[in-house]
Write a structure and sequence with these properties.
about 400 residues, mainly beta, Immunoglobulin-like, 5-stranded antiparallel beta sheet, 3 helices, 33 strands, about 55% strand, TRAPPC13_N
């Protein structure tokens, strides 16, 4: 071959580390080791016994490549002969388990390459797949005698998973959805977590619950330095609320619903940036049966044996019209005020009605609101609702 092909991965340098060797002054070497460390240009002045120095070292090996990072490589084709070669075409492809990508910056051929000259190129690719990757570099050229030459080289490397992401969903009675994301650093080096955000679906608005407001400014619950050590796990919490146009339908959604996707950005070592986006997160919507009853308003604390008001929301989650009758059953502590067995009228599918009710408690302490019954006169089916909510009952003297 007339040409020599070389490929080198471009990575950031690392901080030089040395192994301090010292001894006590009464030992045989005396102050020799300490003086050698002070004279060593790689040590930090005044802190010579620390292993971390102020110098940088070039990468000694290929290193690890993680999903979401940018793979950069330097490609050089050198004319090692004493002849001029023509029509040099350099092509770099990246072969993954699912596709083949062209990474060459230019597809045009170089007219000629003189002896001891080279063609240089730098390629970049954001890694989006885990597993084996093969960098295929091919060179074709024509000699002075008109002979066409061609050769290829293969460079195999593995792409590893940097983070382990687990999610948990909590469905609130107010149609809010709380998402807990557990993110674990499964690499061997610390990460600076630059951003962890949730991109919600079109149905929801999201509120991040990972900051604390103090003295007029917002601070992260993880502190000012959000480093994640190897194998450490951090929990992020988000609250999703249905948008106004979907709020009325939220109570009757059945099956799997799309919540959104997590966007994670981090930096490692000397600022190498990585980014991951999860696939669309899905949760199973809670089943409410044919009729859903939820509380819209209820006081936190009420007086003993004094009436208080609550507001209920009744939603028809079925696909048929219902004719409902409301019955109120007293319990040992909760007594309903009003007429039981009254007609609520027809309720169409996916529609709701609000109902104001009055009750009182004859027992102090934390009491459960129970005893509501809804009967569908068409099917003669009764739906029972107990433990709808809790209310704290105190004597009037205590509250005053």
């Amino acid at each position: 071959y007339f040409l020599i092909f070389a490929v080198m991965r471009l990575t950031k340098p690392t901080l030089f580390t040395n192994i301090p060797v010292t001894c006590e002054e009464r030992d045989l070497p005396g102050n020799l080791f300490n003086q050698l460390m002070k004279d060593d240009p790689s040590t930090v002045k005044g802190a010579e016994t620390l292993m971390l120095g102020e110098m940088l070292t070039l990468p000694q090996n290929f290193g690890n490549i993680f999903l979401g990072e940018t793979f950069s490589s330097y490609i050089s084709v050198h004319n090692d002969s004493n002849q001029v070669v023509k029509d040099i075409l350099v092509k770099a492809d990246l072969q993954t388990s699912s596709q083949r990508l062209n990474l060459s910056a230019s597809s045009a051929a170089v007219a000629e390459l003189k002896p001891d000259c080279c063609i240089d190129d730098v390629i970049h690719h954001e890694v989006k797949e885990i597993g084996t990757h093969i960098l295929v570099c091919a060179v074709s050229y024509t000699t002075q005698t008109g002979e066409k030459m061609y050769f290829r080289k293969f460079f195999k490397f593995q792409v590893l998973k940097p983070l382990d992401v687990k999610t948990k969903f909590y469905n609130a009675e107010t149609d809010e959805v709380f998402l807990e994301a557990q993110i674990q650093n499964i690499t061997t080096s610390p990460m600076f977590m630059e951003k962890v955000s949730l991109d919600p679906s079109m149905m929801y608005n999201v509120a991040e619950l990972n900051t604390v407001d103090t003295v007029g400014k917002s601070e992260s619950t993880f502190g000012a330095r959000t480093y994640l050590q190897p194998m450490d796990t951090r929990q992020y919490l988000y609250c999703l609320k249905p948008k106004q146009e979907f709020a009325e339908k939220a109570g009757v959604i059945k099956g799997v619903t799309v919540i959104g996707k997590l966007d994670i950005v981090w930096k490692t070592n000397l600022g190498e940036r990585g980014r991951l986006q999860t696939s669309q997160l899905q949760r199973m919507a809670p089943g409410y049966g044919d009729v859903r009853l939820s509380l819209e308003t209820i006081p936190d604390t009420v007086n003993l044996e004094e009436p208080f008001d609550i507001t209920c929301k009744i939603t028809n989650c079925s696909e048929r019209t219902m004719d409902l009758v409301l019955e109120m059953c007293n319990t040992n502590s909760i007594h309903w005020c009003g007429v039981s067995g009254r007609q609520l009228g027809k309720l169409h599918p996916s529609s709701s009605l609000h109902l104001a009710l009055t009750l009182l408690s004859s027992v102090q302490g934390l009491q459960s609101v129970s005893g509501l019954r809804l009967t569908d006169t068409f099917l003669k089916r009764t739906y029972e609702y107990d433990d709808i909510a809790q209310v704290c009952v105190v004597s009037s003297e205590v509250k005053q």
